[in-house]
Amino acid sequence: MTASQPGDNTIEKTVIIGSGPAAWTAAVYAARANLNPLVFEGGITSGSEMIPGGQLMFTTEVENYPGFPQGIDGPELMQAFRQQAERFETRIKTRNIIECDFSKRPFVLKDDQAEETRAHTVIVATGASANWLGLESEQHFRKAGLGVTACATCDGAFPRFRNKPVAVIGGGDSAVEEASFMTKFAKPVYIVHRREELRASKIMQQRALSNEHIQVLWNSTVEEVLGDDEKGVTGIRLKDTKSGESRVVEVAGVFLAIGHTPNTAFLGGQLDTDDKGYLKLTDNYRTFTKIPGVFAAGDVVDSVYRQAITAAGMGCKAAIDAERWLAEQGIE
Ligand code: NAP
Questions:
Q1: What's the pLDDT tens digit per position in 203-224?
Q2: Residues lining ligand 1, Cβ inside 6 A
Q3: Considering the domain boundaries, does residue 165 fall inside one?
């Protein structure tokens, strides 16, 4: 069975949008509840490549997902999630949903191949995407693939960074994790943070700060990424937030780790969001959005915990909520 084609009468019971822990857990539960779910596993784009699987695809070792006492690689964990959903015959399309119409029933979803899918229930589990500083120079070198990226795990091993200094921008867990990872390839690794205290958890801070190859440049913001189209990135111009002074630090790469923005653009404002753009649910225990039949789970709604395990838990809740909602409507 495939998604509905123009002119056919297929109405999906449950469409799940996303491919992180929330989406795959929702798929496992929905499939085992005989909802025959269809997952749109559209993903994050890195260069011209689409990478489904959400943020864990860009993580090295996951040490805090229960059930893996020795830890597990992020991509390996996501592969296992996906395989478990497939085991119960979840149908999967590697496409992004670009538009939704929740004003009529069944709901209509348009994908990036211009195909439409109709559905009684939709679970939005699209996660969040990396933030950028917004500097012209940053975007220039990023788009040209010349040394600016938001994914050390994807790009860190490139020869251009080998044994060269690089900078990781940010002060949270992602920044210290990416900095630690980059010491495998590049030296020294600067963490450029705009304050004088890291936001990262104590254990991860300690690990990074005790690494002789990591140096934190406190109270610093990036004014410009320097370089040219032949050599790529050669440095960054930093501004000291206290003295206002600028200085240039030589680096061959810049790795952004300044947080994420929930992926909600395709919803066209049909669901309510909070001031940071995260989807709002109608109560704290369930996954209902303001539109009955549309549920949301994972990082797209969660600005507080943002963990794989909490996303997976919400995905489970969303599938159970969808199943019960369909039963209440008498939809089989
Ligand atoms: P985050 O905790 O939101 O940290 C973002 C960092 O970027 C902050 O230090 C922030 O500075 C800085 N920042 C934000 N905008 C900036 C800008 N425009 N210019 C300069 N700096 C800017 O994001 P995250 O590190 O990606 O972590 C997100 C969540 O994932 C957290 O809950 C984290 O615990 C979790 N996580 C866990 C692991 C793990 O356990 N292995 C790994 C990665 C992430 P301020 O501090 O000044 O606000």
A1: 999 999 999 999 999 999 999 9
A2: 64, 133, 169-175, 177, 194-195, 199, 221, 257-260, 306
A3: yes
